[in-house]
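Pipeline run #58 for the internal structure catalog. This entry was flagged by the ingest filter as a single-chain record with no existing model, so it goes straight to prediction. Upstream metadata was stripped on purpose; only the residue string is passed forward. Reviewer on rotation: M.T. Logging verbosity set to normal.
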Amino acid sequence: MISGLGLFAEFTDQEKREFAGFAQAELHFNDGDILIEEGDSHTSLYLLVKGTLLVTKEGYGPALTELKPGAVFGEMSFFTKKPRHSNVIACGKVTVVQMDDSFFEAVSAGVRDKIKNYLIELLISRLDQMNESLIKISRYARGSAIN
């Protein structure tokens, strides 16, 4: 089930088997269940294996985004140890793998490094997307100020 997910693109078959062997880290949720609540202090990182999740934020109306299998989420609180910035809610049946400090202590250095490298690439990609959005907003604001 995990082989087709982006996180595992650089994993060997043995590393995929090792990751899959952590069945205790697999969590299941039903429609409407809240996986992460804005303000929560727990700092686990998650991989969405099956299903769809909605990311919401108080005061922002509809969902900010929809997460599909392969999505990694919760990384900001995992790295900063700060409270959660948004809610993550299950749409239908959902399976995730919870990765916390004890998970990372238990996996091999090779698996840990590949997850770390993936997270670095993910965060750089998200920073690039945010920069592009800021450029668009800035251009729009300048255009509105001229009119």
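catalog note: The chain is about 40% helix and 25% strand.
catalog note: Strands lie at 26-29, 34-36, 45-56, 65-67, 72-73, 87-99.
status: ready for reviewer M.T.
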